[in-house]
Amino acid sequence: MKTTAFLKPLRHAALGAALAAIVGASPAKADEQFFPLQSYRVGPYAAGGTGFFGGFIDYLNLVNTRDGGVNGVKLTWEEGETQYEVEKGVEVYERLKSRPNIAAWTPLSVGIAYALIDRVTEDKVPLTTINHGRTDSTDGRVFPYIFPLLLNPYSETSGIVNYIATREGGTEKLKGKKIVVLYHGSPYGKETIPIYELLAEKYGFTVQQIEVPHPGNEQQSQWLTIRRVKPDYVVLRGWGVQNPVALKTAQKTGFPVNKIIGNVWSNSEEDVIPAGDAAKGYVAITTQASGAEYPVVQEIVKSLYDSGKGNLQDKKRIGSVYHNLGIVNGILNVEAIRIAQAKFGKRTLTGDEVRWGFEHLQLSPERVKELGAENLFRSIHVTWDNHEGNGYVKFQQWDGKKWTPVSDWIAPDWALLRPIIEKSSEQYAKEKGLKVRTKEDVDKVNGPTGVAKQ
Amino acid sequence: MDHTELLFFTEVLVGGLLSGVMYSLVAIGFVLIYKTSGVLNFAQGSMVLFSALTFVSLVERAVPFWVALLATFALMVLLGLSIERLVLRPLVNKPPIILFMATLGLSYMIEGAAQLAWGTQVHALELGIEDLPLEIAGVFISKFDLFAAAIAAAMVTGLTLFFQYTRVGLAFRAVADDTFAAYAVGLRLPRIWATVWTAAGFVATVAGLLWGARLGVQFSLSLIVLKALPVLVLGGFDSILGAIVGGLIIGAAEKLAEVYLGPYVVGGIESWFAYVIALGFLLIRPSGLFGQKPVERA
């Protein structure tokens, strides 16, 4: 009956809220590792939040259901709604920080991550910002607890410029080209302003960076300006509603879609479907493939969704860009715990021990395959001083129904970026009066009984 | 200014005017309620979201277009009547700030209910109007925006005729002019308020469909209320014509400011530039361009 179908989302939401309340009400037990999730399931960025946190929770749930946790340590979590607002994110942090056995924080917001840097450092608990975050937090010498995993914003920028160079026939062909960056008016959007300037200088192209005020539901003037500038490419550094509106406004002002390159937060189904035909031919960067054919996604479907335990309300979103990114984030968090357990014992870990795990999070393509994620993402190699882990990127094109890869895995120019990152992080350390860590500091870990040199 | 620059200026201006009409569509919903009940209905943006989300969710469940449209309209009427009956009527004669706070609370409730009922997923809404640029004398104009402007013009004409030339319209104006006097001469206020909330529901449905087709149907639709507020300040809270003229001025001014002033400051100024204009008008002409000036006898 149709009316029943209409009520289904309502029932799911009510059930979800009830379950969340139950999870929140249950006290943490021994042999449990807790994930406080600063999620957003309502508000302007809910589509991204529900997909990402849906995938993350699905993976944690899979590990519990399939393996009984990580070496017997059950994974638990509780969500706190932030609506992508910094003050709410901080509120959630203050509310959940006293919960025992916290593994890591995941705010999925540059603004919230910035606001929490001092707090998590003092509390000695890692905070991950997969594919986003403060770029210089890549430098683990200065930011021991912050992990912009897989891809920091500068690497993303480098990946995009390298891709444009490939399309043009080499980096030398970038000389004289015009690139416009249309960025979200938020700390996230502004993060890459300096690196575009620097790359423009290095390769000889001109760059014009245009801000779109939050939330980005009106872009007529920006796109008319773009039409006047007549750039060779527009890089869309958007978020939420800004992305489909950009694609639609580009169409209505006559700018060709195949000259728009989306960044890593402008690459989802939610960004292109509302734009309809205006998005056909649009290319965007990604660190993980979309699609449900990967073994780990199939296991999630079989173990969770087939028995009604999946986190996504809409099963059609299984394997979407955000859902798969959430799953990859789950893999990275769980593997960090597994690696730390191999060092400290198969038990509940302290936040600092999990930090050690992240600092040794090295997953080769072979290990990624063992985890059922071959071709879902390539690999990661986090070290004590490189908290990004040199993630590779791919480019995908929207054909109106699905994303199709249009490039192989591409490596950003890490060698070029590292000195810039170090300069910035050292400046930060100087301003804050922080001691720059050395390799010897890595193994000084705050365990259950206090600080110990392992 | 050379020819190319002139063309560009014209394009920005026309684009701004057409965007302004879209803002007016939302502002008209505010005006209708304010005109007859003195309530600034902050929930108008949420009503736009709710209508668009309901319509697109029904269409996605294979409900035929016109049935979905009628069902959405019916639901919006029901919502409007419920708000009037359950929230605003018990608060009648309370200070305006209480009524405003009530609609503010309603706004959050409707947003939450819409997302709870239909989910937070982003939807595409196709109304069958192609959004390709139309070139007129070298100036690119959006076909969709032209269509939206035509709808807005038809709606304003219809509402103006209704207010000017029908008995119900006359009653509306009487209530707007002096609620107590209207009540004293026997006008049935609850019926008038119910009718105007129905009209506001209709306006929200039209605005929801057009904005939904423009942006995609998602939460951000409720934020377009922020675009309507400066329009109201400029045009006057109780004038439908003011909503249109205010929309045109705000739309054009913010686009021209973004393009020509933006590069000299930080850029991204259009979201607050509209409020600069509105604030300026508040200081010079508090009742707006077309708003009724309050007259008090000493």
Q: In short, what is this structure?
A:
The complex is a heterodimer of chains A (454) and B (298). Chain A has 454 residues and is α/β, with parallel strands linked by helices.
Tell me about this structure.
The complex is a heterodimer of chains A (454) and B (298). By secondary structure, chain A is α/β, with parallel strands linked by helices. Chain A contains 16 helices and 15 strands. Chain A has a 7-stranded mixed sheet with strand order 6-5-7-8-9-12-13, with helices on both faces. In chain A, strands 1-2 form a two-stranded parallel ribbon. The relative contact order of chain A is 0.14. The N terminus of chain A is likely disordered. Chain B has 298 residues and is mainly α. Chain B has a domain of 200 residues. In chain B, strands 1-2 form a two-stranded antiparallel ribbon. In chain B, a hairpin with a 2-residue loop joins strand 1 and strand 2. In chain B, helix 1 packs across helix 6, helix 1 packs across helix 9 and helix 10 crosses helix 11. The longest helix of chain B is centred in the N-terminal third of the chain and has 35 residues. Chain B is globular, with a radius of gyration of 20 Å. The interface between A and B is large, with 50 and 54 residues.
By CATH, the architecture of the largest domain in chain A is named 3-Layer(aba) Sandwich
Query: Which structural category do the helix and sheet elements of chain A fall into?
Result: alpha/beta
User: For the CA atoms, what is the radius of gyration of chain B?
Assistant: 20 Å
Instruction: Please list the strands of the largest sheet of chain B in the order they lie side by side.
Output: 1-2
Overall shape of chain A: it is: globular
**CATH fold-level label of the largest domain in chain A:** Rossmann fold
Q: How many helix segments of chain A?
A: 16
Q: Regarding CATH, which class of the largest domain in chain A?
A: Alpha Beta
Helix content of chain B: over 70%
Coarse structural class of chain B: mainly alpha
The biggest sheet of chain A, with number of strands, parallel, antiparallel or mixed sense and barrel status, is: 7 strands, mixed
H/I helix tally of chain B: 11
Shape of chain B: globular
Which range best describes the helical content of chain A: under 10%, 10-25%, 25-40%, 40-55%, 55-70% or over 70%? Answer: 40-55%
Largest sheet of chain B: 2 strands, antiparallel
Strand content of chain B: under 5%
What's the alpha carbon Rg of chain A, rounded to whole Å? 21 Å
Q: Strand-residue fraction of chain A?
A: 5-15%
Could you list the spans of chain A in which at least 5 consecutive residues all have pLDDT below 50?
1-28
Integer average pLDDT of chain B:
87
**Order of SSEs of chain B, N→C?**
HHHHEEHHHHHHH
